[in-house]
Amino acid sequence: MATDVQRHGHQLLNGQCSPRQALDLIADRWTMIVVKALAEGNQRYGALHRDIGGISQKMLTQTLRSLERDGLVRRTVYPVVPPKVEYTLTPVGETLIDPLAVIAAWAEEHMGEILEARQRHDEMNASSTEYRRAADPRA
Fold first, then answer.
1. Which of 24, 60, 81, 117 has a CA-to-CA distance to 18 between 20 and 30 Å?
2. DSSP summary character for residue 82
3. Residues of the chain with pLDDT under 50
4. Do the beta carbons of residue 73 and residue 97 sit within 8 Å?
5. DSSP code, position 77
C-alpha cells in the first residue's frame, strides 16, 4: 500500500501544484513564527511585533496579509477610537500548530549537528579558496 508521501510526493516537484504552493507558504521564515505566536490566542499587531524578535513592521504586515489572504489568519477590526485590530488563527490556520511544533522540535534537536556541518563546510571551502589563490597569482 502506497504511503501519502509516495502518492503525493511526485506532486511536490511540480511548482504549480497545490501541495507545493501550500508548502511554499508555510516554509516562509516568518509564517511559521507568526503562526506560533498566534497559536497562543488573539493578538494585536503591536503585541505580535514585540513578541516576534527581529521582524520589521513591513515584514510582519506582509506576512499577516498573506496569511489572511490564504485563509489562515482572521483580521478583526473593532469600530472604536483609537482603532483596535486583532489577529487570530482560523480553523485552517490552527491545523498548522501541531505540524509546526514537530518541525520546531526537529530543528532544536538537530541544530548542533547543522552548525557543526556548516563550520566544517566553511572551513573546507576557506582552505580550498586559499589554495586556488596561491596557485593562480592572477586571482
1. 60
2. S
3. 1
4. no
5. E
C-alpha span between 130 and 122 (Å, rounded): 12
CATH 1.10.10.10 correct for 4-135: yes
DSSP state of 17: S
Place of cell 507545493: 20
Cα distance between residue 124 and residue 127, in whole Å? 5
Residue type, 85: V
Separation between Cα atoms, residue 87 and residue 92, nearest integer Å: 14
Burial status of residue 67 (CB atoms within 10 A of its CB: 0-12, 13-18, 19 or more): buried
Q: Which three cell numbers stand for residue 50?
A: 514585540
pLDDT of residue 23: 81
Distance (Å, rounded) from C-alpha 125 to C-alpha 127? 6
Identify the bridge partners of residue 74 per DSSP, sorted by sequence position: 88
Written as one letter, the residue type at 45 is: Y
Rounded Cα distance, 92 and 72, in Å: 6
CA proximity to 45, closest of 86, 105, 94: 86
- Rounded CA separation 37/60 (Å): 12
